[in-house]
Structures are given as C-alpha cells and as structure tokens.
Amino acid sequence: MTHPTLPQANASPAPAPSADGPTTAPDVPSATAPPAAGRPASTRPVVVPGPRAAEPDAPAPAESVPLSVWPASALPLAEGDISVGGVPLTHLAERFGTPAYVLDEGEVRLRCRAYLRAFPEADVFYAAKAFLCRGMANWVQQEGLGLDVCSAGELELAVSTGFPAERILLHGNAKSPADLRTALRLGVGRIVIDSTSEIARLAALVPVGSRQKVLIRVVPGIAAGGHAKIRTGTDDQKFGLSLTDGSARHAIARVLGQRSLELVGLHCHLGSQITTVKPYLSAVRRLVGLLARIRDQHGRTLPELDLGGGHGIAYRPGEPALDLACLGTRVRAELARGCAAAGLPIPRLAIEPGRAIAGPAGVALYRVLAVKQTGAHRFVAVDGGMSDNPRPALYGVRYAPLLVGRRSSAAPEPVTVVGRHCEAGDILASDVALPGDIRPGDLLAVPVAGAYHLSMASGYNLVGRPPVVAVTAGHARLLVRRESLADIQERDIGL
User: Are 233 and 221 in contact (CB under 8 A)?
Assistant: First the structure.
C-alpha cells in the first residue's frame, strides 16, 4: 500500500507572526478564492474573514450588523436581511424551510487553502467528524486535503465520492471489526492505533503478504482545550496510550514485532477549541523525545508525526481564536529545532483540522415559534434545538444569533433562545440580546454552525434532521435533504 504525499495546492510559506497566544483576529489569513470548478465566477472576490467592505452596488445597511464571526461572504442587506455566498438568508428559509443549515462553499475552500499555506510540505487531513457529506468530501479533496475518519460509515461515504482511500486516515478508540475490515478492504493510507488490544486484532486481519501502515496515538500529558469533555491530551480520558506510564512505548514495541504492520509515525491530539500555540509546542518537544528513544532502543527512525487538530475558533464577536499562521510557523520551527538537537531527520508533519474549516462556514436558520415571559426570564422558542445542535447542552457553548429578514427599531433585550424539545436543557443560546419586539414567525440565524451540529444530531422526539444547503456565487443547492417522517417510520418494522 502506498501513501502519496498530499498535493499542496497554492501552498506558500506563511509570514512569521509577531506573537503567540489568543487573538481576536480571524484564524485564517486573507485570500481571494478562484471559482469552484464548473461554477460561475462571482463578481466580488470572496475574502477570508477580515475588514469588510460592501459591494459598490449593494444596498447600504440600515444599521451596523456584527458579522465578524460569519462567513467572509456575509453581507447585510436592506430590510434586515443578510446574504451568505451571495444568497439572502430569507430566500433560503422560504425555499428550503426551517430549521436549515447553510454551508458556504467558498468559505470552506478558503480555509482549506489557508491551512496549506500555513503548513507547506505537510499533510492536512480534514477531520470528517466535524461534518461530513459527499459535497464536503468533494470540496476538501479538490483543495488537496486528505481525510480523517472515525468509522466505516464515514469511510464508505467518502470513498463513494471517489475520495482516494490512500489519502484517508482511520481513527477511533474502539474500532469495531467492521471498521478495521472496511479500512483494509478499501486500502486506507493509515490506521491510528489507540490501544494495545487493537494491535493483534488488526494484525490478524491484514491479508497475508500485505503490510498496513499505522501510527501510535500517544497521550503526551498536556491539558488543553475549551472544556473538560473535549480535552484528550491527559491520562484521565479514553483516548490513546500514555507517555507517562510507559503504555505508548510498550505498544510501539508490540507493533514493531508484527510483520503485517508498518509503524510509520506517532500521533497525538490534545483536545478541541485550543486558542494558544504553546500546548502544540510542548507536544512537539515530548514527541520528538519519544522519536529519539525509539531510534535509540529499536534502531528505527519514524518518518511521520501527526499533531492532530483542535484549533479553536470564535463563536461570538470578540472571542479568541487560534492564530493559524503563528501555529504553522512556530510548530515547524520547534520541530526543526528539536530534531536538530536530537540528531533526527525532520519527520513529515500532519495535522487534522475539522472545526476550523467547517465551523465558520455554517449558518443555522430557525423560525421563532413562541415568545413568553416566565418570571425574570424571557424565552424565545424556535423550531429546532438540541436534536440538531446538542453542543450547548453538552459543553455550555455560547452563540450569537441574529434576527434576519426584518428591521427592528426596538431596543435589544436579554433573552434565552430555546429549542422545541421536551428537555429543560434544550437551550441554544443563553442570555443573548435580541430586539425587544421579537415575535413568532421571525427568522433567527446562528453563525459558526458548520461543525459538530448535524454530525452529532439525534432523533430526539422523532424530529427529522434539517437539510444542508450549499451556497456559492449567488447560487444555492441542496447537499443533504431534510429527514422526513417517512424516513423515520421506514426504519420502524415492529408491527
């Protein structure tokens, strides 16, 4: 099995940033996107989030609208509307209904390209768990990224689009026999080993005369991430093999003893929503130390190092985001420095962004169903909720919804936007400012909705999952249709 170098489309070295740490600047540099293949070019260049200038012929907005965390193509229109990808959100709500998810194709492509610029001569794998559909797989493939999947389902879907299996990496702390058999049958480029029990199980499934390339997922003992439930770099969680207690070194020796497995590198993933560079630099130092020990103890120099993802983004204006250019420059410099000191060749670097590519490209649309005052609290209930976005209930995530489709002169008031489900924790946005005259029938838009919404959606209360609509250059098309009652009923064969 071969694993060709991932193509580096439009790659060029990123300029060295001046500082480390959180930044309120966008997490991708400015760039102009050429039109997608087979699609008409927009009359306005699409720019990655940064200072915004309205189109010369666009209607002047009646008031300032905070769009810093929205897709770069977002523009305020007359009568309180907002366009994304050149399409007014009110038009999308009327055409596709609500709830609905809007995905800006141009934003996805720009963020893919930003990663290739920040990490030249590295492999960038899009983390499919953030959000995957055939359209998304096609976009990231066209932009030169590989794919990181966690199940046979994600793998089969990706391959059905023509995504090359050798550019796919399989993860998972508890891979099923079906997951492993599917990966071997389709010829995935890499499998990340997450436990010692997986080693013999995988080795037994590899066809006679073949070798499967693998990486060992190492837990480096670094605490990083925006919430305890999304921190994966410490020993108190389910992923990986500990560097501290020797589990990682034991697994490495076991893999090296398997003829059907080829250990090509180390892997780690520190967590999610990390907004500073320092944890990644610490991980590089610890993993380079392990690479040196492997060379000294086993006489093997591993050629690859995968630092995972977890790159933080801003969900509300003013929140910090990881500086991507800074990350790329400093990680590559630290890796070169550490390898030189250890007398090691620099391994091929890999990273796995998911949220930072898909998240800011998505907008969720909801219709207000009810508004009521209960004591000191004002609740705005919408036609979606935790079945399409469980993140607020799981992690306490905060969003910044906006009223779109009508202009309001009412003063903003604090409200809690809640979902339609029979659960007290079904809250989409707590204590947010919306116009005091918010009423049933209004349209709300929630930005930064492209990652870990629909990928974690459920069938709670048998409410069908929303559709996904792609927008680009003034055109809209359905990527994933709405789940219907018929879809739900067809699965129930109990009578």
Answer: yes
| Inter-residue contact 389 to 428 (CB < 8 Å) | yes
Residue 56: Cβ-neighbour burial (10 angstroms; 0-12, 13-18, 19+): exposed
Percentage with pLDDT > 90 across the chain: 76
Measured in degrees and rounded to the nearest 5, phi and psi for residue 333 equal: -70, -40
CA-closest candidate to residue 154, choices 140, 100, 193, 108: 140
Residue of 150, 268, 326, 422 with catalytic role: 422
pLDDT digit string, tens, across residues 428-465? 999 999 999 999 999 999 999 999 999 999 999 999 99
Q: How far apart are CA 272 and CA 270, in angstroms?
A: 7
Structure tokens at 387: 């079945």
For residue 112, indicate whether it is catalytic. no
Q: Are 249 and 259 in contact (CB under 8 A)?
A: no
CA dist 248 and 348 (Å) reads 20
What are the beta bridge partners of residue 266? 216, 305
Dihedral angle of Cα 223, 224, 228, 233, to the nearest 10 degrees: -60
77: number of CA atoms within 13 Å, CB side? 16
Model confidence pLDDT, tens digit, residues 152-211: 999 999 999 999 999 999 999 889 999 999 999 999 999 999 999 999 999 999 999 999
SS3 351: strand
Helix H or strand E segment including 109 = helix 105-118
Could you tell me if 485 and 419 are in contact, meaning their C-beta atoms sit under 8 angstroms apart? Answer: no
Q: How many residues does the chain have?
A: 495
35 class by beta-carbon count within 10 Å (0-12 exposed, 13-18 middle, 19+ buried): middle
Neighbours of 85 (CB within 10 A): 27
* Structure-token match 């909705």, residue found: 449
Residues ≥6 apart with Cβ < 8 Å to 414: 378, 431, 432, 433
Distance of CA 457 to the CA centre of its chain: 15
Q: Which residues on neighbouring strands pair with residue 125, listed in sequence order? A: 146
Structure token pair of residue 495: 């009578």
DSSP SS3 for 442: coil
60-to-57, 333, 491 alpha-carbon distances in Å: 9, 46, 50
> pLDDT tens digit string along 299-329?
999 999 999 999 999 999 999 999 999 999 9
